[in-house]
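Input sequence (192 aa), recorded before submission:
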Amino acid sequence: MSASDALLAFLSYPSADALWSLREALLAGNPPHHRALQHLDAAFHFLNRLEASATAKQYSHFASLLDVGAIGGVALQNLLETPQTGDWWWRAGLGAVGESLMVVAARQYVKAWDVELRAEFAAAAWYLSGAYWELSRTLQPDVDGKDRARLVQRLIGPLRQQERTATERAALATRLFQMLLLASLVWVARES
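Predicted structure, token format:
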């Protein structure tokens, strides 16, 4: 696959696998400037962690659903068992409390995923703001520093907004990485 085809594939369907193909195509041809490779690495790490986090959340959510089902199983087991010592209500109550705690624990894993993902978005915003600052400084050196800071903030700011959903922030970060890679590869090609 050529570098332009691999770039188009990444722009069409961004994934860590698409970045592998792009990296291989770039390194097999005329390797781009180290800055473009840094952006490629950062995009790969972000997408790889995002894909892993999404999978982990799905498993945690599924585990919590299984725990909910287990509550019904314990309750049914307690109902079907013949009380031998007259402590049926006591055993049923303890079983329900224990199973409820398991559900709450499983739901905490899902919440932990959200916290970990916020850290991924913060790291992406940090990297992207520096990368766009540098790209802007290279491509438009006469822009005043305050104006540059304001423009970069307008671009990156929505990624830092906690009230945005994880899906919105993931899509925005991915798009920002795509545009950064595209701009840096086009710039490198023009300079060659």
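Checked by second reader. The chain has a mean pLDDT of 79.
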